[in-house]
Structures are given as structure tokens and as C-alpha cells.
Write a structure and sequence with these properties.
With 103 residues, the protein is mainly α. Helix content is 45%, strand content 8%. It has helices at 5-15, 24-30, 37-50, 73-82, 95-98; strands at 22-23, 58-59, 87-88, 92-93. The protein has a two-stranded parallel ribbon with strand order 1-2. It has a two-stranded antiparallel ribbon with strand order 3-4. Strand 3 (87-88) and strand 4 form a beta hairpin. Helix 2 (24-30) packs across helix 3 (37-50). The longest helix is centred in the middle third of the chain and has 14 residues, at 37-50. The two termini are 25 Å apart. The structure holds a DNA duplex (13 and 13 nucleotides).
DNA sequence: GGATTGACATCCC
DNA sequence: CGGGATGCCAATC
């Protein structure tokens, strides 16, 4: 019944359309807690192990993939490029073009 | 039930 | 301009 913050975040993440990206802070805000960006990160860790989420569509506020190379950066870049997103300099995405902007 | 965690965001120097 | 410090919030351990 009552949805935890996590449940809401998961829903929001699932709504991100293919070919678009969103920032951690944006997800948090859409879920009702604008400052819980860090919590979103934790949710990705735990929930992505329980179900499949488009975790790769979430990036930081600078429009960059937040992962380090040894943490799976290349994997994420590949997933994004498959969706038609152009990733510059290994990890930079143009938010002006690709940021999801929900109604 | 308190401490820790986290792929952030922002301000500060 | 760049790195460091700080705030933040809720789930997980």
C-alpha cells in the first residue's frame, strides 16, 4: 500500500523514456524530495539487483556519467549510445539535448 | 535502533 | 579554475 520513497523513485526511473537521461537530483525532486539525490544513488544499487532498471539513464547534474572507468563507465556509455545518445569525451552528455523533461 | 552508506549538489576558498 | 568541505536524506546494515 503505502509507497516508500524507494518505490516512488523506482516508478519515476521507469518513466524515463528511451533516448533521454535524467539527473539524480531531478529524480529525487520528481519523487518528492529534491535533496535526496544521494538516496537515489543508493536505490539504484539495491533495486537494480532486485529488478531491472534503466539505471544508465541517470547521470549527474553536470551531464556526465558519474561512474569511474573501473566502476562500469564503459558499460553505461555503451547502453546510452545504443539508445541514440551521443556521449562525448567518454562520459559527457549534452543535457540541453538529452535531458528528460517530464510534464 | 543507531551508524553507515552513496554513481549527488553546491557552496567556499 | 579546481579541489575540498559541507549539507542532505532515507534505506540498509
Amino acid at each position: 500500500m503505502s509507497e516508500s520513497f524507494t518505490d516512488i523513485v523506482v516508478k519515476v526511473i521507469k518513466k524515463i523514456p528511451k533516448g533521454k537521461v535524467a539527473t539524480y537530483g531531478q529524480i529525487a525532486a520528481l519523487s518528492g524530495s529534491p535533496r535526496a539525490a544521494r538516496q537515489v544513488v543508493r536505490i539504484l544499487h539495491t533495486q537494480s539487483k532486485k529488478e531491472k532498471l534503466p539505471w544508465h539513464r541517470i547521470i549527474n547534474s553536470k551531464g556526465e556519467i558519474a561512474l569511474r572507468e573501473f566502476e562500469g563507465l564503459e558499460e553505461q556509455r555503451e547502453l546510452l549510445e545504443k539508445e541514440g545518445i551521443v556521449v562525448k569525451n567518454k562520459n559527457a552528455i549534452d543535457l540541453k539535448i538529452y535531458q528528460w523533461h517530464p510534464k
